[in-house]
Structure formats: C-alpha cells, structure tokens
Specification:
Length: about 575
C-alpha cells in the first residue's frame, strides 16, 4: 500500500512538473512573439501599453523586412506546435489559444500580399501615425531627439509605400479607384496644412521646448508635407488610372483564398463565405420579424420599409446641429455608465471614456465613429464621434453608437481586460474583431434590458442593422454584388443614407471580412447566454455571466465557448 501511495505521489509530481514545463515554455514563446512584434514596430507600444525605449522609428515595410518577420512567425508557430495543449494548466489556455490563432491567421493572410495594395482611407498609415503623434513621448531631451528622428524618417516610409504599390501594379494588385480618390483628398488637405495644423504636430504642441517646437515644425514643413504631396501626386497621376474599378478582393490574384483568410482573421472561425452569408440572411430575417412586430404597435403597419421610413422621419428624434448631437451623446454616455454599473457588471473598470469629435481629415474622408483605446489607465479612452452626418442621425442611432463604442460596449470590455490581465504581455497585444465587436454588438441588445435607450426609435433601429454585415460583406467580396446593389441593401436598413452607404462600401473594400465579425461574435455570446440560462435556471446571474465572458480578455470564439461552458458546468446544480 505504501509503495502504491508513493508511486501515485511520484506520478502526480511528474504531471505537475510537466504542466509547469509546458506552461513556462509557452510563456517564453508568447513573450518572444511580443518582443518580436515590438522590435518590428515600436509604435504598437502606444495603443497596447507594452513598454519600449525605442521612440525613433516606424515599422520597416520593405519586402526584406516583411519577409524576415514572416520567417519569425513561421518559427514561432513551429515551436508552438511542439507544446501539447492538454498538458497546460487552465490559466495558460487563453495564451495558447491566442498565440495559435494569431500566428495561424497572420500566416494564412500572407496570400493577400496586402503591402502591395495598401491604400486605405479608413485605417491607413496616415490615420495610425496621427494617433502615434498624439502619444509620442517628448518629456526628456532624449525623447525629443528620438521624436525628431522618427518623424524625419516619415518621407522614407512613404517612399517605401510608393515602391510597394508600384510593385503591386506590376503583379496585378491595386486598390479600388473609389478608395484611392478618398486618400488623394486626404493627402491634399494634410500636405497643404501649416505645420501647427498638421495631424502630426502633437509632439511639438505638447513640448515645453521652443527649440524643439521650431525644429519639429521645420520637419513637417520641409520634409513631411512635401512627402505627403509626393504620395498624393503619385496616387493621382500614376496609380489612379491603373486602380481597379470594383471593390471585391476576389478581383485580386488568389482573391478567393485571400478573402477566406480575411474572414478567418476577423471571425477566428473557419466558416466559408457561403456559411457566413446564409447565417446572416437567416438572422436578418428574424430581426426583420421583430421590427415588424414593433412597427405594428408603434405605426400600425407591418411593412418593413414603411416602418423604417416612419421611424426616421419624426422631427423630434433629429438634431438641430452637430453640437446638439455631441452634447446629447455625452448625456447618454453618463447615463449608460451608471446603468452598466447598476445592472450589467459586478466590477467596473477604473478608467473612464470621453467623447471627442473626429479629426478633420477623418471626418472629411467619411470615417465612421470609432473607439480609440488609451493604454494609460490614468487617462480616459476616447470615443471619436462622426459629426458630419448630424442631419441624418436620429437620437436612437446616437444612443446605439454610444452603447457600442463606450458603455457597456468597447470601453467596458477593453478597460476591464487591462485591469484583469495587467501582467500578460500577449493579452495586451492581441486583437480580434469577433470577440471585441461581438461583445459590442451583444452590448447593444443588452442595453435595452438595462433601460439605457431613451428613444423609442432605438428599439427598432438596433434590430434593423445587425447581421447585415454578414450578408453585404461576402456579397461584395465573394458573390459579385455591384456597388449599387450593396448601397441599396445598406439603405434599406434605415441606418444609412446614400452618402453613408457609399462610405460603408469603401470601408468594406479596405477591411474585407471585418464587417462579418460583429454578429459572428455577437451571436456566439448570445447563444452562450441562452445555454447558461437554460442549464442554470434560477442560479443564472447576468452580471456574473458578463464577467465570465470578459475575464479572459480577448480570445478566439472557440476558446470563449470552452471557458464559458466550463463555468456553466461548474455552476450547474448537482444531479
């Protein structure tokens, strides 16, 4: 008996040591991947909060540097596959799942050769670098010296972009004409602005150093602005005539495989375009049925188009100015925060979120409202609101967007994750749309339960749009929809007029698959909630469920399901 007990003890110790060894190996690999990412592009420090001492350069987008980074990812994935996930402790599962998904989807996406057609008005380098400028540290003399070095290198970065685009044209890759025209307009405004009005002037504006201010303004005037003009001139004279007429990624070489890779990256699932398209249509039909029920009560009609028209036509639900839209959104923000804390989550993050108008170059290009995270928890994050569409916006639409971008949507999820995983570098780096946009879509519906919406039109309009992205995105990229067909479909939801629908088509063009992620994730979270309510009955607590969904931070949807179902099993009544 003693020998048996001793053998059991030895066996248990061996299992524990094996788990520790696997976990440590995984942690080392994950930390290496994070460092590789920072070494390649130190600017990611500003949106992730990951530490870096290098504030002197941008990412190297030359073919050689891109190939070297791909090779590092291939080596990382090869090593990851030597780790048995079943040997890992539960605490390591999110790290394994995230690293596997990131590496596999990155490498799968290589078929797209995105660097060869990287003209992007929505989230292109010009927008990213405006964010970098606002975060560039300039407190010390060394930091100011690094800032001058980084921004003086922007012309070289632009020249590399031009060279990549020329290579793309030679190989049959190009961006859509409509997108190129938007970026040309952006370049015109940015390159002609005085240094003090440049979106890149923030380092000088924040520095208490007259000499640095002068030197930085000189870099903008004499180096950056001419480079921006050179890029805009290249796009207008050489690139635009050769750009593709359509927006479908399937028009590019290896287009079908490329779109499948974009879907994988956005949804973390291996669903085909057809599967996503059909699920979207099924969900849209169910949502339309709900709208018809509400419309019959409110307007006495069961015609979907009439209901949408009537709900958008009420003068009392519209704004008199963009300032009124901004102020109303801020009022809803405060109310949403209070009701989120009261009804939807047991632990509120300390970081707050504020609403600011979009920057001029974003508003001019038709960029939609969006959330800008702030890794420094002592500062508020920002919901940047589009105000150029104030005349067509309703109060309900403004409420839905506040909910989606702030409380209880993106900000709650991101700020809470950073508090719960403060020492996990990979968790700070990882992003996937299915989880993050899925949570925000789920939050839109949940906000109705919490009494956040103050306008009746929100109840109809929040049901009219969801899952449409699962239809129109593959419709354009995989099933040969025309631009006008997509615009008509978007307008029919009531959320868009002709201009904003046209803007969305170009957003879909530069972010293939991303619009399918919202409801891929939202439907999964809703299904998990229904499963929890069914199995737990009276023991189900919404605030606890929401915390379980959020506590791991961003994870692939398959890992989210495993985590939530483990919680359901643990909490289920004994039979």
């Amino acid at each position: 008996m003693k020998n048996f007990v001793a053998l059991c003890a030895i066996f248990c110790i061996a299992i524990t040591l094996s788990a520790q060894t696997s976990a440590q190996k995984l942690n080392n690999l994950a930390n290496r991947f994070v460092q590789q990412s920072l070494d390649y592009d130190p600017t990611i420090s500003y949106m992730t909060g990951l530490p870096t001492k290098d504030h002197s350069r941008f990412a190297d987008r030359t073919p050689q540097a891109l190939a070297a980074f791909d090779a590092e990812e291939e080596a990382d994935l090869k090593e990851l596959r030597t780790i048995d996930p079943d040997s890992l402790p539960a605490s390591s599962r999110p790290i394994y799942a995230n690293l596997k998904e990131q590496l596999e989807s990155d490498l799968q996406l290589r078929v797209c050769k995105t660097e060869l057609w990287n003209v992007n008005h929505f989230s292109g380098w010009q927008s990213q670098f405006a964010d970098v400028a606002e975060e560039q540290p300039v407190a010390s003399a060394d930091e100011r010296e690094q800032a001058l070095k980084r921004w003086a290198s922007l012309p070289r970065y632009i020249d590399v972009e031009i060279a990549n685009l020329k290579q793309g044209l030679a190989q049959g890759y190009s961006a859509p004409k409509s997108v190129v025209q938007r970026v040309i307009a952006q370049m015109g405004g940015m390159s002609s602005a005085p240094p003090e009005q440049s979106p890149f002037y923030s380092p000088a504006a924040r520095a208490n150093d007259p000499g640095f201010k002068t030197a930085f303004a000189k870099v903008i005037a004499e180096q950056i602005n001419p480079a921006l003009k050179r890029y805009g001139d290249f796009l207008r004279t050489e690139y635009l005539p050769k750009a593709r007429e359509g927006v479908a990624v399937s028009d590019l070489p290896e287009g079908a495989a490329c779109y499948q890779a974009f879907l994988r990256q956005s949804t973390t699932l291996n669903r085909t375009p057809q599967e996503i398209f059909e699920l979207g249509r099924k969900t849209v039909a169910a949502n339309q049925a709900d709208v018809v029920k509400l419309g019959k009560q409110m307007f006495g009609t069961t015609n979907f188009a009439t209901i949408i028209k009537d709900v958008k036509a009420r003068p009392e639900d519209h704004f008199k100015s963009k300032e009124e839209l901004l102020e109303y959104s801020r009022e809803i923000l405060a109310s949403a925060k209070a009701k989120t804390a009261e009804k939807l989550i047991a632990h509120m993050p300390k970081q707050d979120v504020v609403i600011k108008a979009e920057r001029d170059f974003e508003d001019a290009a038709g960029v939609s409202s969006h959330y800008d995270p702030e890794p420094d928890a002592s500062k508020p994050a920002t919901y940047r609101i589009e105000l150029g569409n104030w005349q067509s916006q309703t109060r309900g639409e403004a409420e839905i967007t506040v909910v989606h971008e702030a409380w209880p949507g993106h900000h709650l999820q991101i700020a809470l994750a950073r508090e719960l995983q403060p020492h996990n570098p990979l968790a700070k780096l990882i992003f996937n749309s299915a989880y993050m946009e899925g949570w925000a879509r789920y939050a839109e519906a949940m906000s109705e339960e919490a009494g956040i919406y103050q306008s009746k039109d929100a109840l109809i309009l929040r049901r009219a749009w969801p899952a449409r992205g699962m239809v129109v995105d593959p419709g354009l990229h995989a099933f040969q929809w025309t631009r006008q067909q997509a615009i008509d479909y978007l307008i029919s939801t009531g959320r868009f007029d002709a201009k904003s629908a046209n803007d969305v088509v170009d957003r879909i063009a530069v972010m293939p698959g991303q619009l399918t992620s919202y409801d891929s994730g939202g439907l999964e979270i809703r299904a998990l909630r229904q499963e929890a309510q069914s199995k737990l009955g009276d023991k189900f607590d919404l605030r606890e469920f929401n915390y379980v969904v959020l506590e791991q931070g961003v994870v692939p949807l398959t890992e989210l399901r495993s985590h939530v179902e483990a919680w359901i099993t643990k909490k289920s009544p004994a039979k």
